[in-house]
Design goal:
Chain lengths: 222, 377
Amino acid sequence: MNVLNFAHAFFSDSAHWHGYDGIPTRFAEHIKYSLEALLIATAIGLPVGLFTGHTGRGGNALAFIATAGRALPSFGLLVLMFIWIGFGLLPVMIPLVVLAVPPILVTTYEAVRSVDPSPVDAARGMGMPEARVLLQVEVPVALPLILSGLRTAAIQIVSTATIAAYVSLGGLGRYIIDGLYQKNYEKVVGGATLVAGLALATLAVFWAASRITVSQGVRRSA
Amino acid sequence: MIRIDSVTKRYPDGTVAVDRLSLDIPDRAITVLVGPSGCGKTTTLRMINRMVEPSEGSILLDGRDIRQQPVNTLRRSMGYVIQNAGLFQHRTILDNIATVPRLLGWTKQRARARAAELMERVGLDSALAKRYPYQLSGGQQQRVGVARALAADPPVLLMDEPFSAVDPVVRKGLQDELLRIQDELGKTIVFVTHDIDEAIKLGTKVAVLRTGGRLAQFAPPAELLSAPADPFVEDFLGADRGIRRLSFFPSTGLELQTGPVVPIDADAGKLAARAATAPYLLVTDLDGRPLGWSEPDRLTAGAIDRERLLDHGRPFVPGTDSLRTALDGAVLSPTGWAVAVDGEGRAVGVVSQQVIGEAIRAAHGEVAEHADAKAGR
């Protein structure tokens, strides 16, 4: 039997489409974990990235934090947090947020810093307050790059959120881990396919968001 | 009036960008700051809207220290134009121009109506209103930059090398446009450039700065050309300042000769009579527009041969053009005579290099007498 047959068997089994272990439930759980982690990571990474990018200070510290964050293995962190904190959502959220903050933070910093300095100088010279210089001049131009950082973070979260299942939580990782344990490869392949599908859907969401939010003047001149 | 009062700008590393500079910048005129790179001209400009804070000295606007009002209020009262226009690429042309009115709290509708008005004033097609900066040429972008600076009708306009990134033809157009706008609006303009020709063309007064941020000379352009303060200024002005100075002398007083001007259908008798007045005859078409020069002894059977006329060079308009244009016409003409035309391009007379030379000497004499009188001699 090949992978396609596994996937077909998994998705055509009506038992997989309802109940607490059904695809809709697991899918919703997975999206919930991912969104929560992305929101927390954005709440940390975006303001810090915007501020440091705007002032141009703290670049070295950022690079250090980002490298350290990337070097931490998510799974190891999960186990460590589980040992320290015990059951619950928190030990899952911490590794996901640690994973997602660096791409958001570093990309946002670089995006704002690389904005052409002359419109910024013109804006200041016309008497625009600093906050508006950042939000109305720098961010609109930096937006495509900022969104790409968020997208990278979101994809990494979606694929890594499967580890929640290791600490007895739900999400699409359930199928992969249970399937491996039960040697039920239909389940493993089905779960992996769903995660991949969700990652692609995430890409599509970000593509649409950038079409809507990025000004035509920025998209075309890039 | 903007008074720059013994201002020094020293950076933490010890570099002195501007050194005890004092300048009284007159109202409703264009004051140009010019000098080589590193002379502190841009720093000086940026101290006027507090983009740079002076280390010593003060700057007064109408008698009040500019530090007495909030910095953003000060900046909104001064238009600011920079080298690459610095347009907001995510905003349409109309919204770029509406920036300062919006900052001042105008409604979007009123700010956009004002922006549309300004597009017309700076010579931008209203079809460009909804475009984005990337769709405009460099010259058009710079016009938008000027319109944006004028949007809230500020009394002062600060321009930092605004035309140096565009090609010479477009630059000339933008300079002419600025002079035209200034005629209409009468702003107090401070203009920074490294191009002495631009300074002389645009400036009512020109401040020449030397490396190290010290003032070398502050004078009207004609005076700069006739009496450079020192070898640095003289060197900076370039080799042909004598010729360039002629731009400031009108060609009104030139004595024109009408004798040598003949229409192409003139008969042999008339040609012979006219040939006695000058070594060459200027032949015009039946409307009186110059066609070219003819030597009397090359007349074919007493009539003019249109194919054998000599080029008449570039004509000048007496009163409108300067002695420099008249002299240029005479130098370019193979006969050594310049052709004077009226506003419609019809020949009104000719003038020899010799007569132009006398006019130049007379003009210099008047200037010298005037200077002597001023000095009380």
